[in-house]
Amino acid sequence: MPKNSKKKSKNQDAGKRSYTGKLEIAKSGVGFVVVPGLEKDILIESDNLDTALSGDEVQVEVKGYADNNRRLKGRITQVVRRKQSEFSGRVEVHQHFAFLVPDSNKMPVDIYIPLHLLNGAKDGDHAMAKVVDWTGKAKNPVGEIVSLLTNESVNEIAMQGLLIENGFPLSFPDDVLEDAARYPEGVDKKEIKKRKDFRNELTMTIDPVDAKDFDDALSFRELKEGWYEVGVHIADVSYYIEPDSALDKEAYKRATSVYLPDRVSPMLPERLSNELCSLRPKEDKYTFSAVFIINKAGQVKDYWIGRTVIHSDRRFAYEEVQEIIEGKKGDYEREIHVLNEVAQNLRKQRFKKGAINFSSQEVRFRLDEQGKPIGIVIKESKEAHQLIEEFMLLANRTVAEYVGSLKHKGENVPFPYRVHDLPDEDKLRVFTLFAGRFGVKFDLTSPSGISRSFNQMLETVKGKPEQHVLEQLGIRTMSKAIYTTDNIGHYGLGFEHYCHFTSPIRRYPDLLVHRILQQCLDNQIHPIKHLEVQCRHCSDQERRAMETERAANKYKQVEFMQDHVSEEFEAVISGVATFGFWAETVEHKCEGMVSMADLSDLDNFVFSESEYALIGRGTGLKFAMGDKVKVRVVSANLAKRQIDFMLTEVPEPTGKRNNVSFAGAYAGRALRASKGFKTDKKKHQKNKKR
Description:
By secondary structure, this protein is of the alpha+beta class.
């Protein structure tokens, strides 16, 4: 199991007057500067934000303490680095000047555009503007129009706006494209001699049906006495991208590809991501490989790591492999069945050693030619997905263990590990009390006891009504996985050593891993400068990419629900707050809000954090996480990316909570009936008096 992480050190320099950190602005307008090493964030009141925006790296001057909890408060004195410099919006042109009115509320003021910087934009156009100057004394930043979106579809404007809003450029600079274009097609005979040749080994890729960048492949060869040689071959991006080149700097800046419902914003130009590096079938390709001598039980007898050249014989989609696993005839069916058996045994070993078995679902949108969603498909992880997942995990763990076993000048080799800390203690305590209502008991005495308890819980509630809510709440107790040189292990996977080695086309940390790994194999280690800073940047970019993807999915959900306003759906309560609850439709996984105002005629509800519920003061009626409800779509607002629901039936209680009768719950029956609210007299009785 991973060792315990170091506890956060308390601030021992309360007298320090200046700090540098990342600014996060709450909906209330109050800011918080997150400073590494400080136990609490620094409070920044709205009038002390200067020109800083949420996500900016800032310098803050401490002015004192904000409250009895001894939280520091201060004012921002300098914006060190902007998270975002380009914004989409509507152009307003006046006689002597112009403004861009931003689409996003992350830019709280309009951007002033001098007429000579309009670059052809006219009044009413939708455009992108880049901030070119913004001093602390100026209320509005000065900007320049860099592109027009007027002729683009609404969907195009929305998706591009989300990418820019989160700091992901829409195109690559010319010098980067030139850098990518100078590499020739094919492989070089001299380079092949430096590598292990796997071109005569059976090799295949397994990816989503619509994938264009294939960054991993598996080779298979049967040996004697029940042993097999399985190669995990990864696109050798490090062969093409030289450190500190224009291509490398742009890849680092982006740090990750971003996957939206209708497009990919790639980390690398298409010349590399979809052509030179992509392990396309029937083409010779350079790879970096981890090759295992392994049996069906998942026992690894030996392994080899190094640079290779491969030739993929067949490109499979996950669906094709799944059909073969389920008994359909197909290409290389025997090899696929062996690989699947090995993968399933590796999977069992992981869970036995402490990995946590959270299930996963993926929402995919079916889009028309204009990018409008015409359907939603819910995809679950099946054995074909697990086959690839287990071999990628094996390769990632093996590479991390190999580098972790080496020393450089008596110290551990600096390396970008992928780590996952123990669950948050406070969140875990609240969660275990809630899980206890369903008969689930947790062993909190050790990290292994906690992971074992999670797996027992997930097995116990499988297929039961409470499964979804307990899984979702359990995930929320977990820490976020990050990149760092401080190896504390990966708690969720149960690995003491783990890294990302298998996706260098779409993740920059994998590229760093490849470079350091080759140095280790050559016994010529030259530690990368500022590696921890690079790890932190990659973690930040990963978080931004996830925020962008979530926002894009939400946009598509809202767009989809616009065609279903006034329709009713079965739903499950997915979140609870002081101002209402969120419900997720069972059929489409679209989440909307039922506001407290719409519940006010039922009762006066209070929020119970420990029960993840709204509870009626007079009736005892509960709206709790996991409860089934029936809702009607009231509105779907694309500008706000918000779906509003209205409750049409009261929920059935979940788990072992007693059903409740609620006094006066129908006091506003006439009003609710006009809204379409239904009551079930068999389940709920009126009390004679309130």
